[in-house]
Structure formats: structure tokens, C-alpha cells
């Protein structure tokens, strides 16, 4: 959903379905939405996190009779939008109104936090999403984050007790004064774009739809040996699930003693041995429980969750032609005669169509 410029007041957006596009394809200023999580390479729309700043126009003049008159205005502004949970490894492309305006690609170096990209539509500063990234000084420095007083008061009262618990585990999480303030913070752990002097269009009253394709590898604890590298087709599903379960930002924060390390390492090695078949590029954008998110990921590898004396583990059915060691059930185990309900032919599936965002087609849907 485009963000309105100063001529039209900002409005929280409802779930968009513009021009038949999926909501993840449109930038939005909707409040209370989930920061996307992704691994591998995916294309996502920005989630606006600031109002438009530095609004300006330039006059377009044409000769009318014997005089030059202003017939239109080109509109510009600066604005910032969140991409996903960081840190990302690489930015692949930037899209403006559905068209790629930059496709050179750039891989971040070790210790690098931000990279500037110059395009025909403006300058984009890409903040990688590291925990140590600095606050933006290109646009957001000194600007108000437009945090209404009533929201700040409500946040202060509700968050005070929660923040005390968080700071016991993360001493650097910040204080109420540093969080509940009008200035933009560093946004540690959040990958975001600052769009400086962005061209919004001729006589436009809305910010154009901005999408980015980024690549990201999972962040996995050092106490487990699982391939965490990013391949062309994605990342190791075991590493992805481990990040969801062990990163404190995700809300679970399992420790080494709560995970069956040996079994997960073995499963991760099996996935890496056939990465072309099993590696994934997931994009999670909905608020949901960890068990549900993991269940969705496991459907891609025919896997299942397991508990080993209270420790979390995973398994899968490899479909390698080997007969599994499963106890045979005979008539002696039955308590009653089995019943069968057969559907009619009109409800019988005779074809399966798999739809997916194709990287070869610039992340458009393919089947």
C-alpha cells in the first residue's frame, strides 16, 4: 500500500490486494505487522517505518503561447522502510513500481553495516541488519519518528516489566528512555532501506511501491555443526529451524541442553548431501507459533518433529528406496473391522500443480 505524501494524510492500510497482487508484493505503512523472516534469496516489499521527509517538487514548464508556464510538478521525498530480520548477506535487486531499476548486486563484507546504491530514481542506503549497525545519518538522523504521545505512554506502561526480563538476558537491549523516544534508533537486527530524494512521480501524491530482492543465511549457534551457508536454491532446513528456535528475537531461545544435538547434526548432514533436493528459501510473514512454522517447513522435506527425553529433535522420511524398519500391524492388533469411505470420482485428484516464485522469472509465480 503506497504511503501518502503531505498533500494527503497518512492512513493505516488494510490488507491490500492491489491489481490482483499478493500483499507481500506491495509496500505498506500498516501498523503492528510482523517483520518478515527469510533465508536464501527472496523478493519482498518494504514495510514503511517513517513518514516522508524532505518533501520537495520541481516545476515542469512548457511554452504556452509566448510564455513559459508550469504545467506539472515532479515530486520527491525521503523515506525509510524495513525489509526483514537481519543480517542479510547480499542485496540482489531493487524494484520501483514493479520494474527493476538496479540489478548489479552487492555482497556485504565482514564488519560492513551499510551500503549506498545510486539509481535513476534516487539513492538507497541498505542497512544490513547487524546488531552493531549505526543509526542512519543520511536521512533519519535528527528526524522525528512520529511516535504519538498516547502510543508512547501505552508502550511505556506495558513494556516496562517485559523489558526488565529481556535485559536480564540481553543487557544491551536498551532502556525505556532509549526505546520510547521520538528519534529513530539504530534498529539493530533489522535490515532496512533509507530512500533518499526518491522520485515519486509527476504530480504524484503517493510514494511508489518499492521491492527488494535480498539473500540471507541462517544464524546458528556455534555449539552445533550444521551447514549454514547459502546455496543457489536456498539454505539447509535444519539450520533454518535451529535459528527459529535458538534466536532470542524469535521468542523461543532454546539452549544447547534443550536440543538433541547429535540427531540434528546427522539430519543436517543428510540435507547437505542432497542440497539440490532439500535446501529451501522460505519467507515467513505471518504471526504464528513456532510449531506451526516448523511444520510448514518440514512439509518440504517430508519431515517431522520429535522429542527425545524432553529434548527437541527432527526426523524425516528419505524416500531412498530402502524399506524402513517399521513393525508390521496385523489383524491381531485390530479391535474392530476397518471401514472405508471412498470419495466419488468428481472429488478424486488426478493432477498436482506446484506453484513457486521463480528466480529465473524475476520471482514471478511459476508452476
Largest sheet report: 6 strands, antiparallel
Number of DSSP-assigned strands:
19
Basic shape:
globular
Query: Cα distance, first to last residue?
Result: 27 Å
Global structural class:
alpha+beta
Order of helices and strands: EEEEEEEEEEHHEEEEHHHEHEEEE
Gyration radius (Cα, Å) is 25 Å
**What percentage of the residues does DSSP assign to strands (E)?**
25-35%
Average pLDDT number: 82
Percentage of residues in helical conformation: 10-25%
Give unreliable regions as ranges.
4-19
Number of helices: 6
Characterise this structure.
The protein is α+β, with helices and mostly antiparallel strands. The protein has helices at residues 149-169, 176-179, 237-246, 261-273, 275-278, 290-298, and strands at 37-38, 40-45, 47-48, 53-64, 67-85, 90-96, 99-102, 106-107, 114-119, 122-127, 190-202, 210-216, 230-231, 234-235, 283-284, 303-308, 311-316, 356-358, 364-366. Strands 3, 4, 5, 9, 10 and 11 form a six-stranded antiparallel sheet that branches. Helix 3 (237-246) packs antiparallel against helix 6. The longest helix is centred in the middle third of the chain and has 21 residues, at 149-169. The two termini are 27 Å apart. The model is unreliable at 4-19 (pLDDT under 50).
